[in-house]
Specification:
Length: about 350
């Protein structure tokens, strides 16, 4: 009897040890849902998350894939000095190449290493696919999945994509630390642009819902002056990308207008500071009243607004995929553009001016 009691005691102790070890080893997962993105012309909102895929072994050719991990010196030796260097909201600098009316590229340089590339336009070197390829063609080569994993030394992450994400911006893992986002024009079901990023760059941008075990990297904080530089860069990027999108559809270029940009900036800042999202301010002023207050003469005007997109390229692809915003972006009525960005609130004001 005593022997049976001792055996039972040993078994209970072993069970308790197993439970404690199991609790220690299985730390709880956490989920980040900070990616709600607003994009409206009629007070609608769109939750922006994405599409994802694990890539089988395949031969990826083309310069865009090869830039991740290279240095800024290698970049400038190959492509020349950038036309502009913009500060980003993620501690890297964008080396911007915008001297072609048919192609545009941004290379994110952190320290001296390229961690992100965004490209839009004709003849992008992204074999085995081509610029303007159909969704079906690309999905046949790159399996799009709703969950994509990434891990570093201490943490593990899963990017979780919605149905909308899979349609508009699928995510594909091409190596342990390299990912492609395919941005699609859902109206034509063709490729609009691509972004290639390291896992850490994606974690900072957070364009998709993230489930993780461990710790997320902290997002950087900036002074008002630093934010001013970041916002100015995003404003110029929106102009550049708008004109590439218009060129692809045989539309005339938009010229920058400083006065209209002030109108757009004031509205973005007002939305941020007063915590609302609308074309009409809390005082009841719309675009017409804002243009009149700045004494801007026009024969036609339109406005696009967006909020909480991680950067300018993402906001542009969002506008392209919203019917009312697309209409303004691709209208031949307009010949001037003013852009105002404040934090992650974006405003485009389009203008047709009297002769």
């Amino acid at each position: 009897m005593k022997m049976i009691r001792n055996i039972m005691i040993i078994m209970i102790i072993a069970l308790l040890i197993f439970i404690v070890i199991n609790q220690i080893s299985s730390s709880p997962k956490e989920i980040v849902r900070e990616v709600t993105t607003h994009l409206t012309e009629d007070e609608d909102s769109i939750e922006s998350k994405g599409t994802a895929a694990e890539l089988p072994q395949m031969n990826l050719e083309g310069d865009l894939y090869q830039w991740i991990g290279k240095t800024s010196t290698e970049l400038t030796d190959e492509l020349g000095e950038p036309d502009r260097i913009d500060v980003s909201a993620y501690n890297y600098e964008w080396y911007v190449y915008n001297n072609s009316e048919s192609q545009y590229g941004q290379f994110g340089v952190l320290g001296d290493e390229i961690v992100s590339v965004y490209a839009i336009g004709e003849d992008l070197e992204i074999s085995p696919i081509e610029s303007g390829a159909s969704y079906v063609e690309i999905a046949d080569k790159f399996p799009f999945l709703s969950e994509v994993d990434y891990s570093d030394d201490n943490s593990s992450f899963t990017f979780r994509l919605t149905t909308e994400d899979l349609q508009m911006r699928p995510l594909v893992k091409i190596s342990d630390n390299t990912f492609i986002q395919f941005y699609f024009d859902t109206f034509t079901e063709t490729l609009s642009s691509v972004r290639i990023s390291t896992g850490d760059a994606l974690l900072l941008q957070r364009p998709y819902e993230i489930e993780y075990r461990g710790e997320l990297p902290e997002q950087p904080e900036f002074s008002e002056e630093e934010w001013g530089e970041i916002q100015t860069g995003m404003e110029q990027q929106i102009l550049d990308i708008s004109n590439i999108m218009r060129y692809q559809r045989d539309l005339p270029r938009l010229e920058w207008d400083d006065q209209v940009s002030l109108v757009a900036y004031d509205h973005s800042r007002d939305m941020y500071e007063n915590d609302y999202f609308s074309h009409v301010s809390l005082e009841g002023d719309g675009l017409k009243e804002r243009l009149e207050a700045r004494q801007v003469a026009y024969v036609a005007a339109g406005e696009n607004i967006a909020a909480q997109y991680p950067d300018a390229p993402a906001a542009m692809e969002g506008w392209l995929n919203s019917e009312s915003h697309r209409e303004a972006l691709l209208s031949d009525e307009y010949s001037y553009l003013g852009v105002g960005v404040y934090r992650f609130y974006y405003t485009q004001n389009f203008l047709g001016k009297p002769f």
